[in-house]
Design goal:
The structure is a homodimer of 328-residue chains. The first copy, chain A, has helices at 2-8, 12-19, 27-40, 46-52, 70-84, 99-111, 133-139, 162-175, 191-207, 223-235, 248-261, 290-305, and strands spanning 59-64, 89-94, 116-119, 142-146, 156-160, 181-184, 216-217, 242-245, 266-270, 283-287, 314-317, 320-324. Chain A is of the alpha/beta class and 328 residues long. Chain A binds a DNA duplex (30 and 30 nucleotides) through residues 1-2, 10-14, 16-17, 20, 23-26, 29, 44-54.
Chain lengths: 328, 328
DNA sequence: GCGTCACCTGACAACGTTGTCAAGATCCAT
DNA sequence: ATGGATCTTGACAACGTTGTCAGGTGACGC
């Protein structure tokens, strides 16, 4: 910048004014400055700029579990889109469900002085503790949680109606006459899984269906494991007549095994997925609007960044039952 | 930091030494400093730090077309993973196939003084011009291109063997006796599409199959459009006996329409996808290792960041034909 | 007693910006 | 002419760090 100033024969401050198109610069001088900028290939250093001005790095951080997962990819895409409308860059970090790593990444993001943070808390058996963020929040970093609530911190939160959705879905299974419903889940440590399981139990209790906890299988981490669990459950005496899969990775494995066996068990699955229509087994999915989840959270975040100091709010978005799959 | 220094009764520099655990600090002083850090909730300002030290923002930029697309999400996830091993953050930006936006985003990333840039160039009919990056490269920002080559710039590039893969696939169709092969593509402006189409033509030419350009359909932007194009082609006299879909979004629409009609046309498709095994129509996919693509590019980038000044290289990764889908 | 060396500490400037302020120029209405 | 308002410019300090350098202490060998 000093070089530009020298070349244009003006002061540093005038160059600064021109590159920020501030008022009160003679057109002729501005032109000289712009020429010098072009010749020298000058580019404003965003770091120095936001260091000086204290706030406004025009960057927000997004902390999710895993970028490659379509759910989080959709969230990231939506957040990036809204951020771009405000010329804000998005730093994405993955915690891989590890609370320690989550904390480290959040601290690092704060050290980079992001304007705000969108956080999907890492699931953990002990429950996450986000109280370390309080200092940052007071220091001016806005934080919004999505998909899962924070631990030990009051902040804006956007959730899905996991419990209500699961309840509705299982109600339908019960209404269709199912009494033995197997539930497959990834990890009971994760908030959304607990909620969905609770919703299923709500529906069973209200219908007076006895609860058989041998039908609930935790720790189903991937499609292959899901397939094995389905096989095992179907091979036992008095097998389940319906399956409830609590996430879409599990759903894939369940479908494959049910299709392979030509089973006629009912299938209820949390999470819609793009190819659900083309899958060779009929199922009911509990769908929701992932983009709306991300949009709500990101807009809430920007409202905070813009200075909204009102009381933190929690938004819960609805789910919907949708029939999917091919009836071959 | 000044507050910490005051509280611990030491100089700024000593605090700096402690928080960077530099040598030559008395344990007792270090302890006092750490106590002050904890009490005051001090957090090092990464911006100021990298401003001072000139280089090393510990941040890289990734420019892709669209985060929500699973292909790019996989790339982003892989890049983030490798970056994290080096305590580097990842800024992700989407160009949405718009070269002007791409240029603006790349300039912005450079202004943020990222250590390096991973770029999937935006496809455009006119071909992209990345010469504006030359100044940045000379100024010290490393750049690696992936999936598509840069325009007017010599830089490391990691590509897939689009042409070879398409050639192999179409060779197989021809070997099975197909003579009328329809090709559906998104946009001929995109490098990968041109290469794949060229590969298909290579195979036809070498087999002496006459080329009917009414069977090549450009501008197929989404699954619904693909379905309509398939319907139209099959309804005309002398319909194609095989379809070649040049990307996976098109493939979904083609499958749906072929399945709906109970067609027996052969289907060849570029890009594998997770549910390909469960789709109700047999197809051959041209698969490749997306993670390897991203890994190669990211490792190349870090080698450059670490000071590798050797001649820019271009890496081409192989593709593979895989049978997918259910034969109902 | 003196030089050498390793260890420890702090003053100061610098990184590249921009906010603050003061001062000069110009214009208009009194 | 005079006062005031508006426009235009630049000197300077500051943002929060860290590299450089100079200086201090103590131990050791001669």
């Amino acid at each position: 910048m000093a070089d530009v100033a020298a070349r244009a024969g003006v002061s540093l401050k005038t160059v600064s004014r021109v590159v920020n198109d501030a008022p009160y610069v003679q057109p002729e001088l501005a032109e000289r400055v712009l020429a010098a900028v072009a010749e020298l290939g000058f580019r404003r250093n965003h770091l120095a700029s936001s260091l000086r001005s204290g706030q406004a790095t025009a960057t927000i951080g997004l902390l999710i579990e895993e970028i490659a997962n379509p759910f989080y990819a959709t969230i990231a895409g939506t957040a990036a889109e809204i951020a771009r409308q405000r010329d804000t860059m998005l730093i994405i970090a993955s915690s891989e469900e590890d609370p320690a790593r989550e904390q480290q990444l959040l601290r690092d993001l704060c050290a980079r002085r992001v304007d705000g943070l969108l956080v999907v808390p890492a699931g953990s058996p002990t429950g996450c503790d986000h109280s370390f963020l309080r200092a940052e929040v007071e220091l001016g970093t806005s934080v919004v949680f999505l998909d899962r609530p924070p631990g030990n911190l009051r902040a804006d939160t956007v959730l899905l109606d996991n419990r209500g959705g699961a309840r509705e879905g299982v109600r339908r299974l019960v209404a269709e006459g199912h009494r033995r419903i197997a539930v497959l889940l990834d990890s009971i440590g994760v908030y959304t899984m607990r909620e969905r399981l609770d919703g299923a139990q709500d529906a069973l209790v209200e219908a007076g269906v006895p609860y058989d906890d041998r039908l609930v299988r935790d720790g189903v981490r991937d499609p292959a494991a899901a397939g094995r669990v389905v096989a095992e459950l179907l091979d036992q005496p008095d097998p389940p007549t319906a399956f409830f899969s609590l996430n879409n990775r599990i759903t894939l494995g369940v479908i494959e095994e049910l299709y392979r066996r030509g089973s006629d068990a009912a299938l209820l699955a949390f999470d819609d997925f793009e190819l659900a229509r083309l899958v060779p087994y009929p199922l009911t999915v509990i769908a929701y609007d992932t983009r709306a989840l991300a949009r709500t959270a990101t807009e809430l975040l920007f409202r905070r960044i813009d200075g909204d100091r009102s009381w933190p709010r929690t938004v819960v978005l609805p789910t919907e039952l949708v029939a999917r799959g091919l009836r071959l």
